[in-house]
Write a structure and sequence with these properties.
Layout (H helix, E strand, L loop, with lengths): L2 H5 L8 H20 L2 E3 L4 E3 L4 H10 L1 H18 L7 H20 L7 H28 L3 H26 L9
Antiparallel strand pairs: 1-2
């Protein structure tokens, strides 16, 4: 059964089961982002694993459900426990953090939890979102140059990405039990 067929019901609408899983993963993302992260360097670096449930949703349920998980996690997280000024760019980044792994899993061929798919998705998120978009959004908020923020963010995001890959590869051992 393909990701799209398993994650959606009739007419491409998400099933109730998919919406419940998305809600659960969004709640975990909120807790990990808002309460389980450490902010460093004046708010330009966040060490945490709030993206992990969003990436997992994209791999497990596909790009739409992954993006929905990112959207809900970011917006509800900001309403429940804001950390600074709201910037819609971070919401876009959060949505893309769920969409990218879903697309890699769908079009990458093979098992959606294979090491190749997991590593490719996480590296794309690291480069495009962690280093690219989120650093750009921080330049808007902090008034610092992109290249000033980039080195420290590259190191911290690289460490978080490596640990995220290890956790997802560990969880992939149980992927057969997660057919939705």
């Amino acid at each position: 059964m393909s990701n799209q067929t398993s994650a959606t019901g009739r007419r491409g609408k998400p099933s109730l089961k998919v919406l419940v899983v998305c809600s659960f993963l969004a709640a975990i993302s909120i807790v990990l982002t808002r309460y389980g992260s450490i902010m460093l360097a004046g708010g330009s670096i966040r060490l945490g694993f709030g993206n992990l449930p969003i990436v997992f949703a994209g791999l497990l349920l596909g790009p739409f459900a992954g993006g929905l998980t990112g959207l809900v996690g970011d917006l509800l997280g900001f309403v429940m426990a804001p950390q600074g000024t709201f910037h819609p760019g971070f919401t876009i980044s959060s949505v893309l953090t769920g969409v990218i792994p879903g697309l890699v899993a769908r079009y990458g061929g093979g098992d959606r939890f294979s090491p190749r798919v997991v590593i490719t998705a996480c590296v794309l998120i690291y480069l495009l979102i962690g280093l690219g978009l989120n650093t750009l959004w921080l330049t808007h908020l902090l008034g610092q140059a992109f290249l000033v923020l980039l080195p420290a963010r590259a190191l911290s995001q690289g460490i978080v990405t490596a640990i995220t890959i290890m956790i997802l590869l560990f969880l992939s051992r149980y992927s057969k039990q997660w057919e939705i």
